[in-house]
Amino acid sequence: MVQNLLSANIKSLHFLQVFLLLLYKSLSPATAIMKSIFTFLILITAIGSFAQGDTIKARKAKSMVNREVIVKAIVAGSRFIEKDGKSILILSLDKPYPKTPLTVVFYNKAYTALNPQYLLDGKKVIVKGTVSKYKNTSQIVISDIQNFIVLPE
Fold first, then answer.
1. For the domain 56-150, what is the CATH code?
2. Which of 53, 69, 100, 126 could bridge 92 with an S-S bond, Cβ 3.0-4.6 Å?
3. Alpha-carbon distance 128 to 100, whole Å?
4. Helix 2-26 vs helix 32-52: crossing angle, to nearest 10
């Protein structure tokens, strides 16, 4: 039943996005303020639809190895490692390392796409991916930056 409600909610958000896009295209160039408002609304509904589907906490994801999940959590710490010419960014979710229930790992390509010019510590994020184990620690490896969203404060 919860699945059906979430599915219906996601479908209604997608309908809203399509409606807003059609309305946006019908506005004349003179209504720049309206276009910026509609752009903002489209962005918010996109984030909402991504966040609506079965989001779980990091501690629950820890036990869901080999399953795709959508996790909403706070970045409790980060580590940057350069080894053999490769860049790796590791984020600890909800609790700092070594007590973190889940880490998020960015390798070269995803790390570069992330554009980590801003600090992620303390930010709320949504992460989508498959949970795996590495040295007895649960992790999600981000290969597509589309699966990582920093939520507005």
1. 2.40.50.140
2. 100
3. 17
4. 160
